[in-house]
Amino acid sequence: MVRGEDGWFVDENGRRLLLRGCNLGGDCKTPYRPRNELPTLEEFRDFRGASFVGRPLPESEAPEHLDRLARWGFNVARLLVTWEGLEPGGPGRYDDAYYDYIERIVALAAERGVRLFVDPHQDVWSRWTGGDGAPAWTLDMVGFDITRLHRSSAAFVHEEAGDPYPSMRWPANYSRLACQTMFTLFFAGDDFAPGLRLDGADSRSFLQGSYIAAIARLAGRLARYDAVIGVDTLNEPNDGYIGLSDLSTLQRSVSKSGPMPSPFAAMAAGSGYPTDVDVYGVRGLGQKVVGRATLGEHGLSAWKDGAECVWRREGVWDVSCGKPVLRKPDHFAKAGGAEPHFAKDYLRPFARRVGEAVSKAAGAGRFMLFIESVPTVASPHWSSEDTAASGVAGAANAGHWYDSVTLFLKRRLPFVAYDQEKSRAILGTRAVRRYFSEHLGRIKRRGLVDMDGAPTLIGEFGLPFDMDGAKAYGTGDYRAHVKALTSYYDAIDENLLSATIWNYTASNIHARGDGWNGEDLSIWCRDDYDAGRSETGDPADAGGRALAGFVRPYARAAAGRPVAMSFDRRSGRFEFEFEPWKSGPGQAAITELYVPEVQYPHGFSVRISYGAHTIEDRPGHALVLIEADPGARLCRAVVERVRA
User: Fold this and answer.
1) Order of strands, edge to edge, in the sheet holding 604-608?
2) Which 8-state DSSP code applies to residue 129?
3) Which phi and psi angles does 24 have, rounded to 5°?
4) What angle do helix axes 177-192 and 263-270 make, rounded to 10 degrees?
5) In this predicted structure, which of 370-379, 478-487, 535-544 has the lowest mean pLDDT?
6) Which whole-number Å values give the CA distances from 557 to 12, 13, 75, 450, 626, in the listed order?
7) Fewest CB atoms within 10 A around its CB: which of 147, 376, 441, 612?
8) Among 104, 88, 91, which residue's Cα sits nearest to residue 52?
């Protein structure tokens, strides 16, 4: 059992833990197909015939993949599931085969000592709105016609647009009608669309109730596996239109790429009134207007025949003399007479509802709750009172962090970074590295300050392996990727953070990447595996990419309070300092270090300042077990590379 305490993850023996692992996996966003390619339109629209059994791992291959994760030092995995996979056919119509499959994968991970926490994943709401996550029936019930969303510009959908996919276009869907409408209804439909009823309930109660019931049902199934430590509330939730003061302007966006409508322009285009909008692209160090484009087709509505735009029915806009007219530009600016605060007024109550349902299904105190907020915009909020009321074993701050320049441009520029939170560029290699550490520290402080001392696990970070024109696929030279990953992990170590890299995709191939919207961030590749390519020469590492960047020594568990940790990849020197305790009832005295062969191919030496150690050899790595002198104020462990 793992719980949160004073900003740390803590095991059943009281040891402070650093959880390091991966997201499993990137292809969980789409139904299972034996081929990693774009589905036909017929396949895409047949949502009732889709199955997620086989995501993230084909069951016959799962033991080998999970053994690889353990070999690479991963003691945790963020296990992706989708609401669509759990409840694909309609409210209460669960796919029991998928639940059974997930349980079998969890059992295999548990046998290998890999902890898991479940991530109900979404991006821009659903596959039919350009992302993944929610079932198609959620859109249908509020009145959308899923076959018209792309043509009406209510969403930009890869499956409808075909190849090639514009690089990193999918985040711009957060500004399109379908995604913004669904998130607004999911979090605040009772406040902003009270006229909409779904099965007799307001849209917020109905949509959240269906989602939470599906997740709680899975939590109940997994409660008997000690390896499962928690459940995420929802990947990267979005605030929709909540809090916007002027619908005629583009006030906020996750990313500006391609045509970017204001909320009112999106509403008009989605109802068949073509609208001219700004087109954004990359200029210099930022995303700027590069042209104009028309969204929508005359007379083509994203809404079903006989249905009307939810927001037109609420009087937000109307048609006068054949043209759309904005009536209530500040409709979403107030709720109950007050300015809404998304994290406090909507996300926090939602997280409590998830926690309460999970605790009821799995047992009070069984699972931790991993909480996220809108990336780069708002902190999650939580308190000890919320923990007590919801019955969970504590909350964790599960925020995400990316080197946005590398991610969006698919190029590594080590001397340039961009702070999205503060809208500023950082120039200079040293300044960039300082920024990485400072920004991660900023995220960690939010857990301590805004979440009442909650520990932080960076739920996602990583880089595109097809950067620089995917030239590494031809050369096999991943040194640029190793350098980038090293800078990320150095900053994570400096902040003593837990983290799960995005991602490990079992179906990844060079031609299609992770199989979703042009992403290719997997640390493992099927093509390289089938070709027998191993960066270490060991067949057990075949398929791994840039291993030296993420297979690193670290302290997995400390019998005391960790103080500092660092690793110099070039020299091979690893240092860990901690304040040891005198072991008492329920406390273990053993501190555990993971030391991989990837970094120490010819062996290593260990020095302990105050205490003794033993070494256990495991496949591909060793564990250094330290019993520190309980009388020492500070214990330092140093691991150094043995030269050939």
Assistant:
1) 560-568, 573-580, 635-641, 604-608
2) G
3) -125, 100
4) 110
5) 370-379
6) 11, 10, 10, 26, 10
7) 612
8) 88
Tokens of residue 554, six digits: 């670290």
Domain check: are 518 and 578 in the same one? Answer: no
Rounded average pLDDT over 272-278? 97
379, 384, 388, 389 alpha-carbon torsion, rounded to 10°: -50
> Which of these, 407, 414, 329, lies nearest to 375 by C-alpha position?
407
User: Is the CB of residue 120 less than 8 Å from the CB of residue 112?
Assistant: no
Indicate whether 538 and 566 sit together in one domain: no
Q: Cα–Cα distance between 65 and 525 in angstroms, integer?
A: 12
Residues 505 and 484 in one domain: yes
Which residues pair with residue 22 across a beta bridge? 77, 501
| Residue 470 covered by a domain | yes
Q: How far is CA 34 from the centre of its chain?
A: 25
- Count of structural domains within the chain: 2
Tokens of 114: 């890999």
Check whether residue 538 and residue 563 sit in a common domain.
no
- pLDDT tens for 207-224 read 999 999 999 999 999 999
Which position among 460, 592, 597, 627 bears the catalytic label? 460
What residue type is 565 in one-letter code?
Answer: M
Residue carrying structure tokens 């030391």: 595
According to DSSP, residue 134 is labeled B
Residue spans of alpha helices (H) in 410-478? 429-450, 467-475
Neighbours of 531 (CB within 10 A): 12
78, 165, 160: which is closest to 127 by C-alpha? Answer: 160
pLDDT digits (tens, 9 = 90+) for 236-260: 999 999 999 999 999 988 888 999 9
Last residue in a domain, options 501, 521, 549 = 549
DSSP letter for 642, please: P
Among 87, 236, 519, 597, the active-site one is 236
Q: Could you tell me if residue 417 is inside a domain? A: no
Last residue of a domain, one of 533, 549, 565: 549
Query: In 10 A of CB 35, how many CB atoms?
Result: 10
What are 281's two structure tokens?
């692209």
What is the enclosing helix (H) or strand (E) of 387?
helix 384-390
pLDDT digits over 512-538, tens only? 999 999 999 999 999 999 999 999 999
Q: How far apart are CA 101 and CA 119, in angstroms?
A: 16
Average pLDDT over residues 397-402: 96
CATH number for the domain spanning 621: value is: 2.60.40.1180
Question: Would residue 460 show up in a list of annotated catalytic residues for this protein?
Answer: yes
Contacts of 149 (CB under 8 A, 6+ apart): 128, 129, 139, 155, 157, 160, 178, 302
Q: Residue 527 corresponds to which tokens in the numbers above?
A: 């093509």
Query: pLDDT tens digit string along 98-137?
Result: 999 999 999 999 999 999 999 999 999 999 999 999 999 9
Helix (H, G, I), strand (E, B) or coil at 16: strand
With contact defined as beta carbons under 8 Å apart, do 191 and 185 qualify? Answer: no
Q: Based on the domain organization, do 544 and 561 belong to the same domain?
A: no
Residue with tokens 């049902």: 217
Span between the terminal Cα atoms of the chain, in Å: 42
Does 249 fall in a domain?
Answer: no
CA–CA gap between residue 462 and residue 171 (Å, rounded) = 17
Domain containing residue 375: 3-131+201-240+343-402+437-549
Tokens of 394: 């504590």
